[in-house]
Amino acid sequence: MSDAKRPTTNITLLGRYYTIACDPGEEQKLERVARYLDRAMQGIQAQSSVLGTERVAIMAALNITNELLETRDAQRNYEADITRLSERLETALTKSREPASGTNKPS
User: How many CA atoms lie within 13 A of 46 on its CB side?
Assistant: First the structure.
């Protein structure tokens, strides 16, 4: 789909306005993402007013990427924990279905 047919959304980053094309129905998501990025950039700029906009954007991108990777790692750990618990549960259920040894032996 060409950009000419795509809806656009106006966003603000560090007081500068940008018109961004996005997929139909994704305008609110883009606005939410832009607000998150703007807050991250404002936080970095507040710490050091001598940084240029490009450097602030790069630092924000690095911080957000770090957040993403930490969240993915945590999710993988949770999934591994769930898998281990599921395996333990399956083992316990299997053992509980087995007849007890030494009982019901024919005489």
Answer: 6
CA angle 58, 30, 53 (to 5 degrees): 25
CB atoms inside a 10 Å sphere around CB 21: 15
Q: In this structure, what token pair is assigned to residue 20?
A: 């961004």
Question: With the CA atoms of 77, 83, 88 and 93 taken in that order, what torsion angle do they form, in degrees rounded to the nearest 10?
Answer: 150
89: DSSP letter:
H
Q: What pLDDT, in 10s, does the model give residues 26-74?
A: 999 999 999 999 999 999 999 987 889 999 999 999 999 999 999 999 9
Integer distance in angstroms from the first to the last C-alpha of the chain?
A: 79
Query: According to the 3-state scheme, what is the secondary structure of 16-83?
Result: EEEEEECCCCCHHHHHHHHHHHHHHHHHHHHHCCCCCHHHHHHHHHHHHHHHHHHHHHHHHHHHHHHH
